[in-house]
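User: I'm preparing a small set of examples for a lab meeting where we compare how different chains pack in three dimensions. I only have the primary sequence for this one, and I'd like the structure in token form so I can line it up with the others. Please keep the answer compact; I'll paste it straight into my notes.
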Amino acid sequence: MLQEITTAPLVDIRKVARSFKKGSGNDVMVLDNVDLTIREGEIVGLLGRSGSGKSTLLRIIAGLIEPSSGQATCRGEPIAGPPSGIAMVFQSFALFPWLTVLQNVELGLEAQNVDRAERRKRALAAIDLIGLDGFENAFPKELSGGMRQRVGFARALVVHPDLLLMDEPFSALDVLTAETLRTDMIDLWMEGRLPMKSVLIVTHNIEEAVLMCDRILVFSSNPGRVAQELKVDLPHPRNRLDPMFRQLVDNIYARMTQRAEPRAQAAEGIPGTGIGMFLHPVSTNVMAGLLEAVAGSPYDGRADLPDLAASLQLEADELFHLGETLQLLRFAAMSEGDLVLTEAGKRFATLETDARKRLFAEHLITYVPLIGLVRRVLDERPSHAAPAARFRNELEDHMSEGYAEETLAAAIAWGRYGEVFSYDEQSETFSLENPQ
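Assistant: Understood. Below is the structure token output for the 436-residue chain.
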């Protein structure tokens, strides 16, 4: 890097934990025992699954929330409120629609009481730097998504921060726009034209992390912990087809798909741990499509996850959720960065619609504890009906209200597809159409 790396850290995080209250009154641990040091002259990535606490850690560093325990310092001082010299770019563009591009960019300087002439000079320079010269007087509604995110970058850069925090800044953009912005940012960083000393970026996109970062901290989930720290020694500009680049991506996929030991699974709420298991609301059509794709050529039942993500244009997080759901249903297994179909998964891919539904229903009742419970309750009740609240309340003993809703929604969608039960949205009631 062109920036000189110094030994004194900009940010130092030591044994930080953060928990939140959930509906039942119990605490949910989001981060646990996290260490992180950020020095000048580096781009550091926080990489992990959705819900692994990456954004929570970013907000602790930004001074927006406090850790429950541990120590967070900026330039040796405890972080208590937003520290000076730290700016943030959000996933959503977070622009004020009634202000022009220039006025949006000037906001941070206005908050610092910079005089009007200096504000305008620096704002115009930042707008020019990020490639929006000529759009100073445009309003956000007149800009594309990529242009609006460039305004967000300019607004963060104009205050000349020591550390730029980026919370999934490219995830709301289309693939080509995101790639252009990443490339532009790295080019400006390598040329020494960006007015900050370091960058911390949160992402769940593995290739993005390898493309941009000097160091990557891979987070595990439930609660979020640093599972691995990787140094990326590849020179910029980086080539996605470089064998070393591909090897690093493959290694990260393998690390993020490692199965926990049974005892750790029970502690972390990984699929297979009973009624308290969180279910991702994955589409049955997408599951079926993935099984068909992996069963066919060129995979013939075994697919490399990075190749699969690229060919199906899926984010790593989406693919992990799909793979874990198929693993839960015993239609596939994830191991060392590969998705491998089981005999049941291969059979599913060859069956007609009705036979698929019957096989899917068998696996749902056998391997998904919540759906097995719903079916047992419906079978045992004389009315063969039960309110959703009966299961929602039980889920909330194990997880937050939001996760309980997502889990229930997934169970309803899967159960309907497999014709395990019926569900009436208006009355929020499960029932059996043809009770045995």
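A couple of notes for your slides: Residues 263-276+368-436 form one domain. The first strand starts at residue 9 and ends at 21.

User: Perfect, thanks.
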